[in-house]
């Protein structure tokens, strides 16, 4: 198996505990914090201009409600 070097890796420069909107100029990304699913710090990404939600492994067949988007949030 071939090894791939990631070069210089870095820690995140932006951390957050509540939803955050990032303005990219032509569109806005909304980062929506989630209760832990597969890892601590799970985030869903909403692109309202494209009507797209990126959820990763949050919506898994047979998963409990705890792992679903917005579970336990008012």
Given the C-alpha coordinates, what overall shape results? extended
Q: Can you write the helix and strand succession as a string?
A: EEEE
What is the number of beta strands?
A: 4
Report the helical percentage.
under 10%
- N- to C-terminal separation? 47 Å
Which regions have little confidence, pLDDT < 50, spanning 5+ residues? none
Numbering strands along the chain, what is their spatial order in the largest sheet? 1-2-3-4
Give the DSSP E fraction (strand runs of 2 or more residues). 15-25%
Overview of this protein structure:
This protein has a four-stranded antiparallel beta sheet with strand order 1-2-3-4, with no helix packed on it. The chain has strands at residues 20-23, 28-33, 43-47, 52-54. It contains no helices and four strands. It is mostly beta strands and 74 residues long. The chain is extended, with a radius of gyration of 15 Å. The protein is 0% helix and 24% strand. 4% of the residues are buried. The model has no long low-confidence stretch (mean pLDDT 75). It has a domain at 20-67.
